[in-house]
Amino acid sequence: MGFHVYDTETKDFNEILTAEALSKKVYDTLNYYQKRCEMLAKANQELMDNALARADAQLKREIETLKERLSLCVTELASKKELNAYNAFVDEHQRCRSFSKHFQCQIPYVIQYGAGVGMISKVRCPICGEERDITDTEVW
Ligand SMILES: [Zn+2]
Hints:
Order of helices and strands: EEHHHEEE
Structural class: alpha+beta
Number of domains: 2
Bound molecules: zinc ion
Low-confidence stretches: none
Helix content: 40-55%
Shape: rod-shaped
Strand order of the largest sheet: 3-4-5
Radius of gyration: 33 Å
């Protein structure tokens, strides 16, 4: 007494197995799919972990950039005149912001450095890269 088993290669029921051989074949097949499922689940988990880690790292970088730019934006400007010049620059570069689809700080930021007698303040647009010196030397 044997079992006819469909052979995927010959596409026919041409294999005759004993009950024991058939149960082993079924067991091996289930085992194979069980292992495949575990491998796929593990690979899927790794992909998700990597994607999360990448998203996390990306967000951390963006937060750092925002913090940095924010601190630059709120850097004490020397006078009301510098603040007005900064605000005028921001208004002019509003057009740049409408073109950028990137998730990033799009507000022009201030770069300051000492010039011996006072601080040089420059404002820079992070999108088009234009820079303008807004230093008010009258307060030096
Ligand atoms: Zn710009």
